[in-house]
Write a structure and sequence with these properties.
- This protein is α+β, with helices and mostly antiparallel strands.
- It has two domains: 1-36 and 260-292; 42-258, Sortase (Sortase, Chain: A), CATH 2.40.260.
- 38% of the residues lie in helices and 20% in strands.
- It has an eight-stranded mixed barrel with strand order 1-2-3-4-7-8-6-5.
- Helix 4 links the parallel strand 2 (97-102) and strand 3.
- Helix 1 (2-35) packs antiparallel against helix 7.
- The two termini are 18 Å apart.
């Protein structure tokens, strides 16, 4: 009986240890799944209107940069299942990032998505400015913003349009926290400004800035109709398949608004951890028997 208890204890010790090691590889999809907020494009307009009306008396709090604190590695745990009404979506294909956009930069907006840095912003106009926390996982919030390069596409989405920006300032551009002018309007230009913290502590923390300029405003309905038409035409004519696939991919991307549970990653991790614990325990028992 004593040996059984010891073996069970050793097994779970090895199993849990291997899970902790494996967490490094699966944490990104798991965190993305647990912290996702419902994205319903049909509600974007109503959510923005409600957030603006409710926040009129709280603008100083909603857009108070000085109130932003550094995000801890496990800060996201506090917001599991926390639902904030999204007012839009940010898509950066180059870094495989899709984030809901919320009104204001208070928590939890910038922990589970991106928050507007000023009141009264309109997509495709002025200087649409967003902030989000830095995260050690590149696919979460603005953890990979530093990888955005000049020429990369940045996309804003509301209920009806895609606003396509071309990056003119890449993620290697670092500024001081005092640069509040980055949200100012620039006459004659339509900009998208993205900002996050650099890794660090205390006075060492600076800001990563990415900026894009509007190049096109595209009707989502027109994209969807064009995709359907092209898919039908490929059956009776010789159209460029690359064009068809590109448009179909955009439509599919827009339809996929929920992040699925990473069943394959989690199952593989549990299976490997179980087999590893079983193998180590078996080898350990064989070694003990030989010594006896």
């Amino acid at each position: 009986m004593k040996n059984l208890v010891i073996n069970v204890f050793i097994f779970f010790l090895i199993f849990l240890g291997s899970l902790l090691i494996a967490w490094h590889f699966i944490q990104e999809p798991v965190i993305l799944y647990l912290t996702q907020t419902p994205i319903n494009p049909n509600q974007f307009e109503a959510n923005l209107r409600e957030a603006t009306q409710n926040g009129q008396q709280e603008d100083n709090l909603l857009f108070d940069w000085s109130a932003i604190e550094q995000n801890g590695a496990f800060e996201w745990i506090a917001y599991i299942g926390y639902e904030v009404p999204a007012i839009g979506e940010l898509i950066i294909p180059a870094i495989d990032l899709r984030l809901p956009i919320f009104h204001g930069i208070q928590e939890p907006n910038i922990t589970i998505g991106a928050g507007t840095m000023k009141s009264g912003l309109t997509m495709g106009e002025g200087n649409y400015s967003l902030a989000s926390h830095w995260n050690p996982n590149s696919g979460i919030t603005f953890g990979a913003l530093y990888r955005v390069q000049v020429g990369d596409v940045l996309i804003l989405r509301d209920a009806f349009y895609l606003y396509v920006y071309e990056t003119i300032v890449g993620g290697n551009y670092i500024i001081e926290p005092s640069r509040v002018d980055i949200v100012d309007y620039v006459p004659g230009r339509k900009l998208l400004t993205l900002m996050t913290c650099t890794p660090g502590f205390g006075d060492d923390v600076q800001r990563v800035l990415v900026r894009g300029e509007l190049v096109e405003k595209i009707s989502i309905e027109e994209i969807q109709n064009a995709a359907n038409l092209l898919e039908e035409l490929t059956n009776v004519s010789e159209l460029d398949n690359a064009i068809v696939h590109e448009i179909a991919a955009i439509v599919k991307m827009l339809d996929e608004t929920e992040i699925p549970f990473p069943i394959l990653e989690v199952s593989a991790t549990l299976g490997v951890s179980f087999m590893l614990a079983t193998l180590v325990l078996g080898l350990s028992n064989k070694s003990s028997k030989r010594k006896k």
